[in-house]
Amino acid sequence: MPYFETTAGRVFAVVQGEGPPVVLLHGFPLTHRMWREQMVPLSANHQLIVPDFPGFGQTPLAKDSLSIDDYAIVTFALLDVIAPQQPVHVAGLSMGGYIAMGMLRQAADRIRSLALLNTKREADSAEAAQKRLAMADKLLVEGSRVAAEAMMPMVMAPDVNEDRPALFDFVRDLMISQAARGLAVAQRAMASRPDSTDLLAKCAVPVLVVAGSEDKITPPQGMAEMARDIPGSHFVTIADSGHLSPLENPVAVNEALISHFQRYP
Ligand code: MLT
């Protein structure tokens, strides 16, 4: 099994392909499996590294409290083992994007390029943070079904929910199969994440911003504004897609990511 012993604990990650390393960071409440449509196309020319964060999927959770920066530390510790001393392309979706920003904050010199998909730079408002803490408590009492019930109605474009039952079931089952404790820890971490507006405005790393045309959680307008404020960034809107663009319109997302990685070899 692809487990790696790192200075930040044991981490499960799928590693595939050869070439400049690319790490793909999953969203909440998902796992490395949300990148299933990227595995073959992206690993043709890159070493693809696709972890489960602590408490998600198959990576154990050693602590009851983590910050977004802690997930970034775990990711760098994994890269120390798999691709030591190599600058890496980092692509993160939503919570994975927050963690990618955490990596940028910690060690920009280790990042070859950044792709921020369906995410946002702002910290939570007091009200949003409060809702997350309430959700964390509820998860611990009622289980991971709570997260699936809250997210499934809005996580994908309406047409996808209606016309692609196999994809709908895949995402719902992935959410439900998560351990509630890991989800609660992540909700608390997201509630206290720092604002990354200034960090991104001063960013010297090449950035691609990817929005979903019908994303209700991180709407494309906000992502366009984020891209506008990042020096030299590229912005792509993925058609026919809500918040889970890599699953909803993988062809367009793969094209955007591959072109981005090729621009910064
Ligand atoms: C995600 O997709 O990772 C979540 O929507 C992130 C969040 O709750 O802010």
From TrEMBL:
Q: Where is the AB hydrolase-1 domain?
A: 22-256
**Keyword entries, A-Z:** Oxidoreductase, Peroxidase
EC numbers for this chain: 1.11.1.18
Sorted alphabetically, which InterPro entries does this protein's record hold? AB_hydrolase_1, AB_hydrolase_fold, AB_hydrolase_sf, Epox_hydrolase-like
Q: Name one Pfam family in it.
A: Abhydrolase_6
Q: Name one GO molecular function term.
A: bromide peroxidase activity
Which SUPFAM superfamilies does UniProt cross-reference here?
A: alpha/beta-Hydrolases (SSF53474)
Q: What class of enzyme is it?
A: oxidoreductase
Q: Does the keyword Oxidoreductase apply?
A: yes
Has the keyword Transport been applied to this entry? no
Q: What is this protein called?
A: Non-heme bromoperoxidase BpoC
Q: Which organism is it from?
A: Planctopirus ephydatiae
